[in-house]
Amino acid sequence: MATPPARTIPVRTIHVRLPGEATDRSYEIACGSGLIDSVGGRVAADGARRAVVIADAAVAGSHAARVAASLAAAGAATTTLEVPSGESSKGVPMAGRLWAELAALAADRGTQIVAVGGGVVGDLAGFVAATFARGLPVWHVPTTLVAQVDSAIGGKTGINLEAGKNLVGAFWQPRGVVADIDTLATLPDREYISGLAEVVKYGMILDASFFAWLEGHAAELLAREPQALAWAVERSASLKAQVVEQDEREVSGLRAALNYGHTFGHAYETAAGYGRLLHGEAVAIGMARAARLAATLGRLDEAVVGRQDRLLASLQLPTTPAAAGAIEPATLITIMGRDKKSLHGRLRFVLPDAIGRVELVEGVDPAAVERVLSAP
Amino acid sequence: MATPPARTIPVRTIHVRLPGEATDRSYEIACGSGLIDSVGGRVAADGARRAVVIADAAVAGSHAARVAASLAAAGAATTTLEVPSGESSKGVPMAGRLWAELAALAADRGTQIVAVGGGVVGDLAGFVAATFARGLPVWHVPTTLVAQVDSAIGGKTGINLEAGKNLVGAFWQPRGVVADIDTLATLPDREYISGLAEVVKYGMILDASFFAWLEGHAAELLAREPQALAWAVERSASLKAQVVEQDEREVSGLRAALNYGHTFGHAYETAAGYGRLLHGEAVAIGMARAARLAATLGRLDEAVVGRQDRLLASLQLPTTPAAAGAIEPATLITIMGRDKKSLHGRLRFVLPDAIGRVELVEGVDPAAVERVLSAP
């Protein structure tokens, strides 16, 4: 593991190397403090003459306004389109509205889309960019922790249907990502903490040293201490970028490791009713269940289950499904069978062998799953 | 130029070689007679356990029913979704309906989409396939001439917005194309003839020998004589595939050659009001205007203008804009400035230097364009 940054918070650049069919699709993720006003210069250096900022309404007057001002200062003709906050914006009607607005602006392949906000705006704006005029360049300026460490990286874009989340989408890599940790200062506690679940996930699936570092810095992370936060974001983004470089389109199975905790988590999230659990909370519960399943199957030392539970708890994340309400195991198993990640209805899970190492396990015995789900 | 097929109509296979980011995306176009019942076997050989046929209502009871039966016979669980005929199906509402239907069928990346119909269904089903679950495999079974020689080949998918045609879409290559010329026997005359405009286009932009062959076989083509028709489809599809192999995503400018006749044609089509001119008719008028513009600019021998006019006329295609109604040149120029193919509002045209050779010409003098538009 590389070492955490020292006293000051330098800007770190993570390179994402991706071959292209026609043009190289490699790009950079800039991480650090004080970056928001640099977005315009970065996008303009990429050749932008016109830019359309697609902004979550919650940051339209703050972060997005600064991004738009920096774009204008860099000489790009800039328009901002505002999207109401919340998951309900991530659907066909809002995609249709944004397509129509881009058409009204006569956007073409020389127009750069700049998404400012959390996962909802990033996924939505990314999908709209992927599909307008068969593909506009897009930049991501994530302003939530979960977006900085997860959703803004890797090129997955998508919208929800009534039948399920992210059922429609495209793989569409950004031209660049700018993750400014200063934007995290004003996040509501619960949303910020929810993002820490994905940070823990990276340690569990890929990097035991990082996991140990998290164990030693839980208090600093909860306090949003900039040094610790910068390292948590940089290391997480870097680990995700490595996975995406090796398995961009989920072909080899490597990228599936990122779904650790998500099969259980998604089931709890759905069964509880969307909105009751934040995504990261559901993932924390899911990771705790996945570790228990691995232990039940004899794949993982019980001590690791406890160590993960303690780290999650020290970050004020849930480890038991109490927060989801009373849900029958059978309900959860039904939902998991319908999961996009299931194959022909057979249950499969990403399960840890040790801290920093996971495996995709197919055809897990439903009785073992039910036993784990029935535990408190 | 390869030689036309002899007495019988063998099945010809055109290979489209495309590198992939993760997996090879090469595929085959099968051309010939008696192919429709082979679709199931071909798709099943590609590993399909489940298939969803998306069919134009006009062929749902005929060609699409045979495709579905062949899929079922090959062991794929098959469902058919019917789409009303006509351009109005190619929009956001129908894409939304198909997405919801695929979700209701629990389609996943192991489900193959099979599009049966003309350009509307091919473009729509291709776009839905490109975006459902971030990409399902798709097969094209084009049943119109224009789809067999043009729209089913090359991976452009899309839907229309109220603001314009094909404004939303994706590049998404099929797993295979099956072009059975038998399906062309029942096409209405006007629609069949409209497709011949694109065939003439391939001769003009890429292959002088093919152009000369068309001049010698206009009567056979009008009579839909199978030998001639098979060669026209095979040669056109093959020429398009070559262009797509070299410039899949319109990066080098080579693919732009395929837009010969389309800048003028699109303007006439729009100004006349959609529905008055068929697309191929508008392209024929557009090619006649583009050749005149090339001659006006001193780029093309006047004799070639006449030769192209005579070939189009011998195929019963229009060469003058009379069919579009009375339209002011200024109206057409305004529309051309808004064209997706224009760059920052400057007029650019694909213009021939000779039969079989075209060039993309930027910044054409608007006065010359107006002179050509004002001619009868």
Q: How are the SSEs ordered, and which strands pair?
A:
Two copies of one chain form a homodimer.
Chain A: E1 12-16, E2 27-32, H1 39-45, E3 50-56, H2 57-60, H3 63-73, E4 77-83, H4 92-104, E5 111-117, H5 119-131, E6 138-142, H6 145-151, E7 156-161, E8 164-171, E9 176-180, H7 189-206, H8 208-216, H9 218-222, H10 226-246, H11 262-272, H12 279-296, H13 302-314, H14 329-338, E10 348-354, E11 357-362, H15 366-374
Your description of this structure?
Two copies of one chain form a homodimer. Chain A is of the alpha/beta class and 376 residues long. Chain A folds into two domains: 12-184, 3-Layer(aba) Sandwich (Rossmann fold), CATH 3.40.50; 193-223 and 260-374, Dehydroquinate synthase-like, alpha domain. Helices cover 45% and strands 18% of the residues of chain A. Chain A has helices spanning 39-45, 57-60, 63-73, 92-104, 119-131, 145-151, 189-206, 208-216, 218-222, 226-246, 262-272, 279-296, 302-314, 329-338, 366-374; strands at 12-16, 27-32, 50-56, 77-83, 111-117, 138-142, 156-161, 164-171, 176-180, 348-354, 357-362. In chain A, the strands form three sheets. Chain A has a seven-stranded mixed beta sheet with strand order 1-2-9-6-5-3-4, with helices on both faces. Chain A has a two-stranded antiparallel ribbon with strand order 7-8. In chain A, helix 4 crosses helix 5 (119-131), helix 7 (189-206) runs antiparallel to helix 8 (208-216) and helix 7 packs parallel to helix 12. The longest helix of chain A is centred in the middle third of the chain and has 21 residues, at 226-246. Chain A is globular. The interface between A and B is large, with 43 and 43 residues.
